[in-house]
Specification:
Layout: H1 2-17, E1 20-23, E2 27-33, E3 36-41, E4 45-48, E5 54-59, E6 63-66, E7 70-73, E8 79-90, H2 93-98, H3 103-119, H4 138-153, E9 158-170, H5 172-212, H6 219-235, H7 245-248
Antiparallel strand pairs: 1-4, 2-3, 2-5, 6-8, 7-8, 8-9
Helix pairs in contact: 3-4, 5-6
Length: 249
């Protein structure tokens, strides 16, 4: 009987030892009994519980990943390449375990889907005042991306701490054409600003002359002075103004 008792004690000890498990800092153990959720243990150290309980460990540490470079069409239909860095962590271990099959894979797939949806909602460049674009408003775009990620990942018990664009460029097949377009737009904007500044200086000069009474100018002389001043102010900068003297004054 003594050998049988020893074997029984050994078997009982081995069975009870299966209830031991370790919980590390920033880690949780999700406990379930025969498919029923029992609770979540976040106490650190060596723990013991019912050996029949299933213990699924979940990391609560902050994680991050960078999505691959996705090729999408922005709001105006131009193909672009975009990538983002997502910083996230699990805040509800039970939802992470029971609501999705693989929460880490779920986060990655949903993040890329949210990035695609966000990129198609905004133009690459800003064309109108007050318009939000991918390139000119990184803060607003990051906030919008985080909002979309929060909506998609809440069900998995995941909280998004930060989301920001890490790569943004036109697709290679149109990059050269879009660069030429940007250069042309910059030249037009610069010339427009030069002409506007010159017109303002001419208006100020005429107003000061009329106010001081140094010289009296009739309409014909005013038109001639305007033409000469615009040529002096704009001609040296490569912009030859076309002046309609009848429409200025």
């Amino acid at each position: 009987m003594q050998p049988m008792a020893s074997i029984g004690v050994a078997l009982l000890t081995a069975f009870l030892s299966t209830g031991l498990y370790m919980v590390e800092p920033n880690q949780a153990a999700v406990l379930s009994l025969f498919g029923k959720y029992i609770g979540t243990d976040k106490s650190n150290g060596l723990r013991w519980n019912n050996p029949f309980l299933t213990k699924k460990k979940v990391s609560l540490r902050v994680r991050n990943f960078e999505s691959g470079r996705l090729k999408v069409n922005e709001l105006e239909g131009s193909p672009i390449e975009i990538a983002a860095v997502i910083v996230w962590r699990v805040v509800d271990s039970a939802e992470a375990v029971f609501n999705v099959d693989d929460y880490a894979s779920f986060v990655q797939i949903q993040s890329e889907a949210a990035l695609r949806a966000m990129a198609t909602s905004y133009p690459y460049d800003q064309h109108d005042d007050g318009q939000i674009s991918l390139r000119s408003h990184p803060t607003e775009i990051s906030e919008r991306l985080k909002e979309q990620l929060d909506e998609r990942l809440t069900a998995a018990g995941v909280d998004v701490l930060e989301a920001r664009i890490s790569h943004l460029a036109y697709a290679p097949e149109i990059a050269q054409a879009m660069l030429q377009r940007q250069q042309a737009s910059a030249v037009i904007a610069a010339r427009t600003r030069i002409v506007a500044g010159a017109v303002g200086m001419v208006e100020l000069a005429l107003a000061e002359l009329q106010k001081s009474g140094v010289v009296q100018l009739d309409e014909e002389r005013k038109a001639a002075m305007v033409s000469n001043l615009l040529v002096v102010l704009c001609g040296d900068r490569g912009t030859q103004p076309i002046v309609n003297t009848g429409s200025l004054y």
